[in-house]
């Protein structure tokens, strides 16, 4: 402490100044104060407790606290076990329960079996018991479980946008009902979605017939065009069921039956049966596709003709002109010429092929095509004798026509006072010319039951939250017409109502309980039988046996076609008058799955784009218009505009723009917010599916798109091996002939420890994927995501290549070698997009997941043994050992390992970079975590993960078998007991999983086939997952016939001809090509 | 000091003047010669104590074994099993079906206790729970980490007795954690299942002993062969 400078001495003479009275009196305290820098107590310790003493006490207390911490604080927190006070019947904690139910869908309900873990549904599977199902599902059914736990779903009862009580809403419905009973029904209109529920039909007819209400049907996309056309062509209410399995030759007229038509899972199952090939003398079906967009159907076609959607009708007429003869030939067919640029030989040979397979062929038309194309398709099927064979007409209740414009007119005319909307979102999806929002405002009261508070919600007087189908009682008709129940697995999480309840309340039905309504409907189906037993069996089986619709004989009426044909003069697109095609999106459908993160992040099966839609455009059109990928453009059609990014899509028809519906929503949840752009504003009545006359203007800005596969070609490498049927017949071992020359390794340096374990292990797990059956529908991706707690990462992370899918579907294009400017260099799509070979590509899809290599390259680079082999051949990943070096991922030649760069579970995808400020709210997480499978670890940040072959299912099956075995040795899991999530969901049956130790297992037999090969065989990784090579079945007479698949030509060009070598037996050691290993 | 012709240094002090070593010894007392040894010994002792302490505190042995929380109802396994002879599976009835060995519902307690000790104040909570439906908040004792997927059913139906993990629970007045349930503990048995396997009718018999270690080994090896018991040491056996 520096002493203060001494106070100035008092002047010896003159006036004395003092600074205070203390100074004047010169007290000792003042003297001391002057000498001190700090006041007393600030710099020294006068307490009896000395500093040393204090430190001593503190250290002692720290020591005690530490001991206490070690003794109690380090213990696990005390947790309580709360057993039931009265155990529910048939419930065992920890053993999942399964309930049969069904998912309502446009084209008929999907029969399902849903797994419930301690009261919460966690996984959806198809109901394999149902006669019209193999247990496969589509991607929407798999992902629909996420909607149940969506934090953004409608949870409030709203009156004029203000939250109110459920009681108030129910009171209002009661008032409405009383008004109806006293004759107010004339002014009530109901707007409903398409649904097959007989109970709903019963309540609706009660409302219309007894109370005079009017019912209007609306779906943003009318997918029942085939059924409506059939009703017209056959003069009675029928539902056409195409049997692709019985057809040898199939012609699709813009019909994406493998992708976006109603009931795709059934179509895929049947189509895949027709693609089944085991021996060289087996036959294959042949698929001709005429389409504008490259769809999944076109991707799987043997011959594909790309014409604008508006030109498909002309092609259909031209083919029909070769097929329809005599009486069935309508007037005016000869006057119709095929669109310019279409090779007449294509049409002729296609027609010839159909004619050669009378009764074994099938012509199908897609929902985007006008009525006349459907009528042409039926006329051809009738002429080819397919009706009743490959095209079965089932008895069906008459289908309502869509009539939203009529409702809009009635609203404007003031004929509707009360409008009840059940589910639809017309404000966002109605044709733009209807100006729906203003029409809806004309109704005095609008009551809406909906799953989301979306664009329509603010314009409603009453907004009621809807229950998820897993929370509802209901019923429906499956695609084959059989009665299926909708059975709840959980009470409504947010008190949502079902359609049936709302309708019953409005109708003043004696009971408002949907359960009672459904039972009454069911009683109508099982008259006289023991009702309670039949009801129990109905709920147990998930369908009413014997209730499937019967096929009916129907006489074809050629008159509608003759009437429709003369008006067939479509305008074809040109550079200045482009065609826009509005299509259902593979991910979000018509927008109803817009807020589903799993579907948003699912790469589109064809474009491989996530989280966005884009303006799909052909290479030639893009070049002529001077636009390139990611460039923002403005599309104008009839004075209406929308803006979106360009995506050059191989295989697109020229002058045709593909615009996916369902994106760019203005009011949606946090997941769907700011995804893509809205194309609904371009749609008008009568041009809901495609329109010609659009113009495109580049805006000069770019927009980033997240695409998971930006390399298109296999570059001649035998990743997906394919051959034509004729080649396969000549060389059944073509797949093994494409093997690379084995490196000169006779003996591995170290023995593989797995070889020693193999004889003693009970099982050896393996998988085979038949590429001939896989159509690329992506149901497996959704099933895996649901089963294995795979998180979503968001668009930004996908752009960085951090998507987490354990199974992906690689889609490769192969171009004509004559058009390819071949170079060895790696080309991203930015460089490929203007190469001519992409115009008419052949497409292959390949599910790619962990190959479970016996000699796994990932294992020997892990410094902490976090990925190791088990004795049954699984490459297992031990999350709690993993320290996140990512060496394994670097060393994996198949690129199937996924790293958790963030804690994707606990953080919302919008806040990944906010550190501790980006945590998900607890209540949100409480809801989201309910979808997690409790048998699979939820991975943390910094951990590597990958496909485990569903090890939790393997272990569960093994344990169940061992429990059953008890004191016996029957511990080998029998074939067919279980399978992986992807295999179970696959509607095509392309994925087969099982025990390789059992020579009679399906997988072991598949691996015996000639077509069996492993990807990247040259690395000698010995994958447990092998593929069965693809066989194409082109028609040699067709003008676009190639002797070998284009990817095979590319391979031959690069690696040499695999058939030129004599060693047919070994199938190895041929490659004399230009290298390239 | 002076160098001699041989180049050696004479440590002999010069004859006169104060001895420099005496001066040094005034600064550093003689015992400091032993200081390095003392530091070493002390360091070893303290270090050893720290290691031993940490070892003890951080192993499951310390944190779990002996853990005996106070339960809301003073249920005695000793009374019910040892004296009354009830089988474990009367109450823990799901143990052969589920990974989880359930606690009985209050209604099950009342099966007997609406006759026996029907007004006993110790059972007030049970009666209340059965009447109101409020569960009894038992304190959890045995628990493996979330990443361990232990399954009761496959152990008890394949020759592993309750006593192997839960100790002599039939003698416990209050349940305590008897075994460490650490990964080593699991692996000890998974590596040598023949030492623990027993006839299936003796699973819930806590007092059963093999006649001799040799007999146990013979039985175990026979069971491994006939029942195809696997010695599972792979990660996937317990972690998913």
Q: What number is the mean pLDDT of chain A?
A: 87
Strand content of chain A: 15-25%
User: Count of DSSP helices of chain B?
Assistant: 12
User: What's the CATH architecture of the largest domain in chain A?
Assistant: 2-Layer Sandwich
Descriptive notes:
- The complex is a heterodimer of chains A (1077) and B (240).
- Chain A is an alpha/beta fold.
- Helices cover 27% and strands 17% of the residues of chain A.
- Chain A contains 33 helices and 39 strands.
- In chain A, strand 10, helix 8 (264-274) and strand 11 (286-291) form a beta-alpha-beta unit.
- In chain A, helix 5 crosses helix 16, helix 6 (198-210) runs parallel beside helix 16 and helix 10 crosses helix 11 (344-356).
- In chain B, helix 6 packs across helix 7 (124-132).
- The longest helix of chain B is centred in the first third of the chain and has 24 residues, at 35-58.
- Chains A and B meet through strand 1 and helix 30 of A and helix 6, helix 7, strand 1 and helix 12 of B.
Short overview:
Chain A has 1077 residues and is an alpha/beta fold. Chain A is built from 33 helices and 39 strands. Chain A is globular.
Helices, strands, pairings?
The complex is a heterodimer of chains A (1077) and B (240).
Chain A: H1 21-25, H2 28-35, H3 51-73, E1 80-81, E2 97-103, E3 110-117, E4 120-126, H4 139-148, E5 157-159, E6 162-164, H5 166-184, E7 188-192, H6 198-210, E8 214-217, H7 225-233, E9 238-242, E10 249-253, H8 264-274, E11 286-291, H9 296-299, E12 303-306, H10 312-323, H11 344-356, E13 361-365, H12 371-383, E14 391-395, H13 404-412, E15 418-422, H14 426-429, H15 436-441, E16 445-450, E17 462-465, E18 474-477, E19 483-486, H16 499-507, H17 514-525, H18 531-541, H19 559-564, E20 578-583, H20 597-601, E21 609-610, E22 615-617, H21 619-625, E23 631-637, E24 640-648, E25 656-660, E26 690-702, E27 706-707, E28 722-724, H22 725-730, H23 734-737, H24 753-757, E29 765-770, H25 779-787, H26 795-799, E30 808-814, H27 829-832, E31 842-848, E32 867-869, E33 875-877, H28 887-891, E34 898-899, H29 922-928, E35 944-945, H30 951-965, H31 981-985, E36 991-995, H32 1002-1007, E37 1012-1013, E38 1025-1028, E39 1030-1032, H33 1046-1055
Parallel strand pairs in A: 7-8, 7-15, 10-11, 10-13, 11-12, 15-16, 16-17, 20-25, 22-24, 28-39, 29-38
Antiparallel strand pairs in A: 2-3, 3-4, 5-6, 5-17, 9-14, 18-19, 20-26, 21-27, 22-25, 23-24, 23-26, 29-36, 30-31, 32-33, 34-35, 37-38
Chain B: H1 20-27, H2 35-58, H3 60-63, H4 77-83, H5 88-91, H6 106-113, H7 124-132, E1 138-139, H8 152-156, H9 163-166, H10 183-191, H11 213-226, H12 235-238
